[in-house]
Design goal:
By secondary structure, this protein is an alpha+beta fold. It folds into three domains: about 100 residues, no CATH class; about 50 residues, no CATH class; about 120 residues, no CATH class. It has nine helices and eleven strands. A five-stranded mixed β-sheet has the order 7-6-5-8-9, sandwiched between helices. A two-stranded antiparallel ribbon has the order 1-2. The chain has a two-stranded antiparallel sheet with strand order 3-4. Helix 1 packs across helix 3. The radius of gyration is 25 Å and the shape is globular.
């Protein structure tokens, strides 16, 4: 139903809306010509749609009835801000659930199913663009996207579970379990509009390997209440964080001063507010950080 809204607006009762797709997310793709960026398009949010997508005058003709209530509701619930690939696979999976004959046979091995082709002859001119191509005839097989970006959570077939929903559920589950690292050292405070948003630092490992982490204050508070160890160092002494009221945290030195109140702001790669925003946007990164052992 949600895709019907887009189909109706773009085809049956054409409405010009250049912002229907958001291509701000991009993943690096290694190629023979070096790393290029692959845009991962998502649908615009419902509130971003123009009024002509959502509203119809009372005297609209049958050809203008693009925004049925069912389609608007479907867009809000199952399409907005989701990956285009996910929604297309959802639609394909629905039809396959009605008739197994719509499920094609497995495709050929990946090395023979896809290839990267340049826009020019490399022996004559340096290619400006490399295209991901497939030979003719693959439409007779079950669609299966190639693993070209090394992001294991991406959905590649309509027969696979909905990836974004699965990853969201796994991320929420991980918040209810403790990090797998032995402990986390708190080095920085993450601030936003003068308020403490979260903390960042490094894990401590028995083998000496350390990995960066970032968390919102509420999550650190929950972990500490569940007896997971966060600590900060002051004058060479490790001081454990303690819960203080609702979502409050303290790390008191021997003189009773709160060391957390004097930590520097998080800066640099994987330790700042921007990285916190990133791991919240990409569930696989957040899961890897929580499971880092």
């Amino acid at each position: 139903m949600g895709l019907e809204l887009i189909r109706n607006c773009e085809t049956h009762a054409s409405v010009v809306f250049d912002g229907i797709l958001d291509g701000s997310v991009a993943f690096g793709v290694p190629t023979q010509a070096g790393t290029i960026q692959r845009s991962v398009y998502t649908w615009a949010g419902y509130d971003e749609l123009p009024p002509s997508y959502r509203n119809l005058p009372s005297g609209a003709t049958a050809g203008q009835k693009r925004a049925r209530k069912e389609a608007l509701d479907g867009f809000r619930k199952a399409v907005q801000r989701r990956s285009v690939i996910e929604t297309l696979f959802d639609a394909m999976a629905f039809f396959q659930s009605l008739d197994d004959r719509l499920v094609g046979p497995p495709g050929p091995a990946m090395p023979w199913a896809y290839g990267l082709l340049p826009d020019t002859d490399p022996d004559v001119e340096q290619p400006g663009v490399w295209f991901l191509c497939r030979p003719m005839g693959l439409d007779h097989f079950e669609p299966f996207l190639p693993h070209i970006v090394l992001r294991p959570f991406e959905r590649r077939s309509a027969r696979w579970p909905t990836a974004d929903a699965e990853m969201h559920a796994l991320r929420e589950t991980s918040k209810k379990t403790l990090p797998q690292a032995q402990a986390r050292e708190v080095l920085h405070t993450l601030m936003e509009d003068g308020k403490v948003l979260g903390y960042s630092g490094y894990t401590t490992e028995s083998a000496g390997r350390r990995s960066p982490w970032v968390e919102r204050r509420a999550q650190v508070w929950k972990d500490v209440r569940a007896s997971y160890r966060y600590f900060t160092c002051h004058d060479g002494t490790e001081i454990d964080l303690q819960p203080d009221g609702h979502q409050g945290l303290t790390a008191l030195d021997p003189a009773g001063q709160d060391v957390l109140a004097h930590l520097p702001p998080g800066t640099g790669a994987a330790l700042d507010v921007e990285y916190l925003t990133m791991v919240e946007r990409y569930p696989d990164l957040y899961l890897a950080m929580r499971r880092d052992d």
